[in-house]
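Quick illustration for those who missed Monday's session on complexes.
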Amino acid sequence: MHFPQYRARRLRQHPALRRLVQETTLVPQDFILPLFVVPGQGQRRPIATLPGHEHLSPDQAAEEARMAADLGLLAVLLFGLPAHKDPLGQEAYSEQGVVQQAIRAIKRAVPELVVITDVCLCEYTDHGHCGVVENGRVVNDLTLELLSKTALSHVEAGADMVAPSDMMDGRVGAIRQALDAKGYVDVPIMAYAAKYASSFYGPFREAADSAPQFGDRRAYQMDPPNAREALREVRLDIAEGADIVMVKPALPYLDVLYRVRQLTDLPLAAYNVSGEFAMIKAAAQRGWLNEEQAMLEALLGIKRAGADMIITYFAKEAARLLAK
Ligand code: PBG
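Prediction with PBG bound:
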């Protein structure tokens, strides 16, 4: 079909017609809302680097979860800022840890909401790395034990799903084994399968107080130039028992997302990370972008590339807009 027999503009002539031929649709159920939990009671402190987000004590996290569910969101993803950090990140796997408390509070208040927990040590270690450090290096296999303990403690507190984000080799298998050994055979794992060493985590590291105190994460997170390697990472996590795989960040890695979509029929998550959120927020604050339109266009792009679900700091705003 060629012009003038075919005119692509015919199907763009009015809004309802455009919607009729729309190939990708966003709904509130697509979004997972990250929450940052801090110790205490009645605490709600704005996070400077994530406008519209707050540090929440467990009781407030439960209220926030209620609000999220009322907006049509199906899931939240929990991060914790402990009272104390130490070399082994012990509060990550303490029964009285902030995340464990928040899980219990949220499941009590909003049992229908899926509670996912980020499993990593960087917020809990004094050196800010995602595992055990020896001689300036993160030791892989020793870290697996602590990650497994962390995941298990989340599940014992009532978490519906665990999401390891540390990028140690073998952690999905180790966590699967640890959960199964305690009878939690039905608790799924969402693996941060292809997670890159990205500068777009900057605002998050301020929010989670998890910046490495020396060096960087390039010896465990993926190197940005590599896409085939992402497929290897995804295959490994699937072989180890991942139930959902993730690509992170999202926008600078849409090609990776698309390739992973072709590789597997497992559910696929994308993490629209803090720096991607910050770019749109900051530009909108200056009047350089229409925030609502830019946000929805970015989220749509991530879904069009193949994501089944999107972890995003825009979750509430987007859900609100889409409900209109
Ligand atoms: C923990 C973790 C990070 C993010 C999610 N989990 C930071 C990092 O790897 O340094 C980043 C999320 C974001 O930027 O929104 N390992």
